[in-house]
Design brief:
Elements (H helix, E strand, L loop, with lengths): L3 E3 L3 E3 L3 H4 L1 H33 L30 H33 L5 H15 L3 H15 L21 E3 L2 E4 L1 E4 L3 H29 L6 H18 L4 E4 L2 E3 L2 E3 L2 E4 H27 L3 H9 L4 H31 L11 H13 L2 H30 L5
Length: about 400
């Protein structure tokens, strides 16, 4: 039997792949990988043979044909003569929009509720407990339908905004809340608008840099650097200054009631709002429990030691407790973000056209290409899920405890 020589471990024999614990796990993993590849190849060949027997094949040519249907929420230009591929892109964008909005909102709600569940105030603590238990134990689809029904029934129709002063019932004369959705002003970009946008992005980066500097200064010298008002100033002043210097290149297009509906501006449909808030409030209850568990995992001695140094309760929470709790909070938080993305497929219940409603719904039914459409859907959700996991794992590695 052939052998390889390892100067540190001695000779290597093929039998060691099973007998040696250093190599056994790799051997089993390799066998499992080969078995998986063989199984997938068998299923793929079986699928191709069955389709060929029925005179069918796998083809994605249908993506280039006209879709023939409209989509109510369109983040990009689209009409019924656009291709099925463009319809799928619109659905993907709609899915990403609601997923990002719900993830951000759920995180804010969850962190707030999780911290408040540990409040010394009995009333606040019980209110947050009721919220968590109520929303965790009712299916998210029920909350989607409840919020959508409330918006449809309680808000007025656009015709109710007619009167002597058309904008008298609008919020700040700029935002209209109707049973068809919410109409908000739309930005109008002029020459130099991108400079204003880049200034705003630079301001956000400056806020993060300031907070990082303040944290480093606190840990190195014990001196507290004010961050709240400087952050507020960085958020508003540079952007506003550049905006007025360039002659206000970004304007607003306000919604106006013309005919039986509002025109211009941006329409945020009630289906998007219902799906957004239902996913955020529902998932926020789970995140609240993750936050509470992460905080309780930190020893009380940390709080007592920080209090002995003279730190106020809010700074103890933000500087001592939460940074250590993140290593407990983030792993389950990844699962909640994935759940939000996958639960967004319930959008069809309220008529919001996400990728499941376009590619996996109307396109599939019109073209009869079920296998192709489902494979594309699986690929999309797989890519999104892996992307979220990768980003959160990178962040988790950046906040974990570093050993000296």
């Amino acid at each position: 039997m052939s052998t390889l020589t390892d100067p540190q471990q001695g000779s290597f024999r093929l039998s060691m792949l099973l007998s040696d614990t250093r190599y056994r796990s790799y051997t089993f993993q390799f066998i499992a990988l080969v078995a998986l590849i063989v199984a997938m190849a068998f299923l793929g060949l079986n699928l191709v043979r069955n389709l060929a027997a029925q005179g069918l094949d796998i083809s994605y040519d249908f993506l280039s044909s006209a879709s023939g249907y409209d989509i109510n929420q369109r983040p990009i230009e689209y009409d019924s003569q656009s291709t099925h591929l463009r319809a799928a892109v619109v659905g993907i964008l709609n899915t990403l929009i609601v997923a990002v909005l719900a993830c951000v909102t759920a995180t804010i709600i969850g962190v707030f509720a999780g911290v408040m569940r540990l409040s010394n105030n009995w009333l606040v603590r019980k209110i947050m407990a009721v919220y968590v238990e109520a929303f965790r134990n009712v299916p998210v689809l029920i909350w989607i339908l409840i919020i959508f029904s409330i918006m449809t029934v309680s808000l007025p129709a656009p015709s109710a905004f007619r009167g002597e002063t058309p904008t008298s019932t609008m919020f700040l004369d700029t935002v209209a809340f109707t049973n068809r959705g919410v109409y908000i002003p739309a930005p109008v970009m002029g020459p130099g608008a991108w400079i204003v946008i880049l200034t705003f992005v630079a301001s956000i980066l400056g806020i993060f840099a300031l907070r990082k500097y303040a944290m480093k200064t606190l840990f190195d010298t014990g001196r507290i650097v004010p961050t709240f008002w400087p952050s507020v100033a960085l958020f508003f002043l540079p952007t506003l200054l550049v905006h007025f210097i360039l002659g206000r290149p970004i304007g607003l297009e306000y919604p106006e009631l013309r005919g039986f509906n509002f025109q211009d501006g941006i329409q945020i449909r009630g289906s998007l709002i219902a799906l957004w808030f239902a996913l955020a409030i529902y998932t926020g209850a789970f995140i609240a429990e993750n936050v509470r568990a992460g905080i309780q995992a930190i020893s009380k001695g940390q709080t007592e030691a920080a209090g002995a140094l003279g730190l106020r309760p809010n700074r103890i929470m933000s500087l001592v407790i939460l940074p250590q709790a993140l290593r407990v909070i983030i792993p389950p938080l990844v699962s909640q973000y994935l759940n939000i993305t996958k639960n967004s497929s319930l959008a069809i219940a309220v008529g919001y056209m996400d990728v499941t409603g376009t590619l996996g719904g109307i396109t599939l039914n019109q073209t009869g290409r079920a296998i192709e459409s489902v494979l594309l859907l699986m690929l999309f959700y797989l890519v999104i899920s892996l992307s979220i996991s990768t980003i959160m794992n990178i962040y988790n590695n950046s906040v974990k405890l570093k050993e000296r």
